[in-house]
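Chapter review. Work through the record for DUF4292 domain-containing protein before attempting the end-of-chapter questions.
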Amino acid sequence: MKITRLLMGLLVGFALTSCNFTEEIYVNNDGGGKFSIQMDGSQLMAMAGKEMQNDPQAGKVIDSTFSFKDVFAAKKDSIAKLPVAEQERLRKLENYTMAMKMNAAEQQMMFTIATDFKSVAALEDAMSAMTGVTSLGKGMGETNPLAQMGGIGNNNSTLKYAYDGKKFSRKATLLKKETTEVANDSLNEAFSMIYESSTYTVKYHFPKKIKKVSNSAASISSDKKTVTVEYPFTDYMKAPEKLNFDVEFE
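Structure tokens for DUF4292 domain-containing protein:
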């Protein structure tokens, strides 16, 4: 039994659970820095742990880190068959790495995608990247449980960041919706359950003190250099523009 099938089946059949997502950025004085986004599914694993331990494949301990650049090199033949636009999107992810940790016995389920950057403007939408790799085919999906989870993270928008030393902005722009409706199957129902009970947190660290943030729900650290905002995951998926905000510095 595949890991995804087991987890989604449990979601549909039992009570609501949650996954927590944290998008974190460290900005340096020169405008470069570090970016990461983490999915913590420990609550899901706590619910599914016993069932997974009884399945040899699903209960297998995973603790690995890989670079997308290496994966793309191994899948170059498959990538060459993709539309040009998709190939270009994948190339933009070459500097990202992904760490996966899954351990049913320890109720651990964690995925982290990360990269260093020279400018925040160069960052891509990493949430989409977490599942976009499914376009490389079934072979990679079998080694990436998160990728098997289909459309989670795909909120039909583009995400851009900007920083000039005086102001930082996060802006998601909705794309034109597809005309084809997706069938309402059990997998979509499972995703809907995840959305309703999960959170999406942004946490940004800056080299300068923050003067103000254009979001009333934002909290600023005591040293005035970190801003944190927590959103319902339904906002991220259904109304990503609600996560847009600006930060001004002293």
